[in-house]
Specification:
Layout lengths: L2 H29 L10 H15 L4 H22 L10 H9 L3 H21 L1 H5 L4 H56 L3 E5 L5 E4 L1 H7 L3 H4 L12 H12 L4 E9 L5 E12 L5 E10 L1 H46 L6 H25 L7 E4 H18 L3 E6 L4 E5 L1 H18 L5 E8 L4 E8 L6 H6 L15 H11 L3 E7 L3 E9 L1 E2 L8
Parallel strand pairs: 7-9
Antiparallel strand pairs: 1-2, 1-5, 3-4, 4-5, 6-8, 8-13, 9-10, 10-12, 11-12
């Protein structure tokens, strides 16, 4: 307990005892007949009332302590002067006793000499009255009693002060330890890189850290006391089921799911959900720790994709060689058969020849997978390569009445790499876009310089589009939605872009079209030594 608060409580107690003493003295004077009449001065009653008023005014506790002790001592002095019985001198013990209960050595040491001077004064003034009623032995006992009580009060005050100081030091140490612990916990909560939030039993947020705000995009003011949509609509039922299990005491550690930001975008999240108990063992809240694992998921996906590419390359290296040798023989004999117009099975041999060409195309794409990284890197203008592709497809675009929109904003962008490979990627993407368009559709090709040292290439069409499931599998080997496709074109395109330290992404909506974006690192033309 605070020392000031304790002193306030003691002042209140001793004022009440002072008032009770006055009341008892008043009542005793009505029923007990003293040899000399005892009067109750009006100033004592008024003084007690004044103490009550000052206490209500929250006067300084030490001033109040002095007024209480001074009032008690003064009233006893008046009582002895008014009715000079030597036995009344023993009443001086009471203020000394009260001073010792204050645990104040200063009050005891000040009050002790004042009391001694008052006793000496009273004996000198009333010696004649005392002489007829007191014996030397009684006087000795009275004085000895006063001395012992005074010393006891002083020693008790000194002892209690030291005890109080030790208690204060211990309390201060405990408070510092508690403050440090709470401070460390607060710093951990505020500076944690993972999002942390505390929910009440109704799933309303009651506390959150800055990382949680940054991760989900909701501000503290928006979250506190409210239900916030943090999961995709299709996952709400599963999330509510987890909450019910947590409220029953179950915990979830490193649970992987999809969560939703304020802007409606989803991200891969790793959650730890735990109940929070009070001292009685009752669940009073829930804690949620969220870690964004989108980068880890992307890395895992990249590793899997790399392994697939590696496997496909190993297969290609072996299969292409083994298949092409017998295919050369078969193709030669088929061509010989096709030159004979009288051959009865010419329809079938022409079909076989077309399928052999298809097999040869698959083997050629296999060989691209088997090739090592770019070895003949040269500088080239990326926009010139794209414009060459546009020129290549212009007749088909005109024939199908497809509207072409061009936006060239990267005229000085020079890419270092194998331009034929990049050209092949652009051809694959533009070809796919044209095949997705109906007559009188639109195709938009644009380039831009990004602020992070990349040039972006965007190829947009307003064709049939793709479902999210198809987009997620578009770079898988042998995955295709075409009846004549090999399922290797986009996989090879991704491999080529990655070998050029770039990135390729696809954004598509069913019946709304598709956008393929390519990012490649570039140099400015004026800084280039040579350009092609």
């Amino acid at each position: 307990m605070d020392k000031s608060m304790l002193l306030t409580k003691r002042n209140r107690l001793f004022i009440n005892l002072f008032a009770v003493g006055l009341l008892l003295h008043t009542l005793s004077s009505l029923f007990i007949h003293y040899q000399n009449p005892v009067s109750i001065p009006l100033f004592a009653i008024l003084y007690c009332i004044l103490l009550y008023i000052l206490r209500r005014m929250n006067i300084n506790n030490y001033v109040m302590q002095t007024l209480i002790l001074g009032g008690m001592n003064g009233y006893i002095l008046y009582l002895i002067i008014d009715t000079p019985y030597y036995i009344h001198i023993l009443l001086f013990v009471y203020p000394l006793f009260i001073a010792s209960l204050y645990h104040s050595i200063i009050s005891s040491l000040i009050l002790l000499p004042i009391t001694a001077l008052e006793v000496i004064y009273l004996f000198q003034k009333n010696y004649i009255n005392f002489e007829s009623t007191i014996e030397f032995g009684n006087l000795y006992v009275v004085l000895l009693f006063l001395i012992l009580i005074s010393l006891t009060a002083v020693v008790h005050s000194l002892f209690m002060r030291n005890t109080w100081h030790r208690m204060e030091e211990q309390q201060s140490t405990l408070e510092r330890a508690l403050d440090s612990r709470e401070g460390y916990l607060h710093m951990f909560f505020e500076n944690a890189k993972d999002g942390i939030a505390v929910f009440d039993l109704d799933a309303r947020i009651i506390a959150l850290n800055p990382a949680f705000e940054l991760l989900y995009g909701w501000s503290r003011e928006e979250c506190i006391g409210n239900h916030i949509p943090l999961v995709p609509p299709e996952n709400v039922a599963a999330a509510n089921e987890r909450i019910e299990k947590v409220l029953k005491g179950e915990s979830f550690y490193s649970f992987e799911t999809k969560d939703m930001k304020k802007n409606g975008t989803f991200f891969d999240a790793q959650l730890t959900l735990s109940p929070i108990y009070n001292k009685s063992g009752d669940i009073v809240a829930m804690s949620v720790i969220t870690r964004d694992i989108s980068y880890r998921k992307e890395a895992e996906k990249l590793i899997v994709q790399t392994e697939k590419l590696k496997l496909a390359g190993e297969i290609a290296a072996g299969v292409a060689h083994e298949i092409r040798n017998p295919m050369t023989v078969i193709s030669g004999f088929i061509q010989m058969m096709n030159t004979d117009d009288q051959h009865p099975y010419q329809t079938y041999t022409k079909l076989i020849a077309s399928e052999l060409e298809r097999i040869n195309l698959i083997i050629s794409e296999f060989l691209i997978l088997a090739k090592p990284h770019v070895t003949k890197a040269k500088e080239f203008h990326i926009e010139r390569i794209i414009q060459d592709v546009v020129l290549l497809f212009s007749p088909e675009l005109n024939l199908r009445s497809i509207l072409l929109k061009e936006s060239w904003n990267a005229q000085n962008a020079i890419v270092i790499g194998e331009q034929n490979q990049i050209k092949q990627v652009i051809i694959n993407i533009v070809k796919n876009a044209i095949e997705a368009l109906t007559n009188e559709g639109s195709l938009e090709i644009s380039t831009d310089l990004e602020t992070d040292g990349f040039v972006s290439i965007h190829i947009r069409d307003n064709g049939a589009g793709m479902t999210p499931e198809v987009v997620n599998q578009i770079f898988e080997p042998f995955f295709t939605t075409k009846t004549t496709g090999t399922g290797l074109g986009m996989m090879i395109s991704e491999k080529i872009i990655q070998e050029h330290a770039g990135k390729i992404t696809i954004n598509s909506q069913l019946n709304k079209g598709t956008t393929v974006s390519i990012l490649l690192p570039y140099n400015k033309a004026e800084k280039s030594a040579t350009s092609n």
